[in-house]
Amino acid sequence: xxxxxxxxxxxxxxxxxxxxxxxxxxxxxxxxxxxxxxxxxxxxxxxxxxxxxxxxxxxxxxxxxxxxxxxxxxxxxxxxxxxxxxxxxxxxxxxxxxxxxxxxxxxxxxxxxxxxxxxxxxxxxxxxxxxxxxxxxxxxxxxxxxxxxxxxxxxxxxxxxxxxxxxxxxxxxxxxxxxxxxxxxxxxxxxxxxxxxxxxxxxxxxxxxxxxxxxxxxxxxxxxxxxxxxxxxxxxxxxxxxxxxxxxxxxxxx
Length: 254
Ligand SMILES: NC(=O)c1ccc[n+]([C@@H]2O[C@H](COP(=O)([O-])OP(=O)(O)OC[C@H]3O[C@@H](n4cnc5c(N)ncnc54)[C@H](O)[C@@H]3O)[C@@H](O)[C@H]2O)c1
Prior knowledge:
Bound molecules: nicotinamide-adenine-dinucleotide
Distance between the termini: 40 Å
Number of strands: 7
Order of helices and strands: EHEHEHEHEHEHHHE
Shape: globular
Number of domains: 1
Radius of gyration: 17 Å
Number of helices: 8
């Protein structure tokens, strides 16, 4: 018995670092997982990993969730896969970094689209299905960057978009309560995904700059975030809504 037995969970961005581990963890806890991504090979790999471990997962890719029409179709396909949806895990995002005032208008718009449009579109199209089911849970992956300013790297678009995700989550919780929908944000500090690990290589100075503000002086490992997400998605968290949980190694504590 897992804490998510019989739940149907839609996870966006399951080709990526945190989304892949979310799919594996939610499936291990008994959920039927629908996972989507713009990247086909990476998403297929996640489906394969989940199934090989005995879990249940359906993949939908490629899908560009910044396009509302594609987001709508993806949600309908996800509903069709297992006959409904109980949990929406808004994890997919793309963001760009750069200093003021050089951060370009294009990068600003792409960051707002990649971080704020995506969870809004998916939540909007999934909402009637959750209502029809008598309720459900929306978990939005925000960021510690939505709470405090950051200097490595400089990230005006990212902080604005993720603060928007936290604010949107509160509003979804307010509007969802009467339908039995809980909405919760989780805000990671710096997490080491395989892609980030590859990009940083042996550049210890860059690694230290990113983790400097954490009290634990290290990156988080994906499981340290998604174990909390699995709990929030479960019925054990039935009194939790409208909250934002920081999982940041103490980055925002000082
Ligand atoms: N890794 C960190 O340190 C960290 C810190 C704070 C917040 N976060 C948040 O956690 C979430 C996951 O991050 P990650 O580190 O695993 O990143 P990632 O880049 O490894 O994964 C994101 C996934 O989303 C997919 N995606 C991007 N744009 C898409 C689109 N338009 N349509 C469909 N899929 C799309 C990507 O292909 C990728 O597989 C993001 O919301 C990110 O902002 C991560």
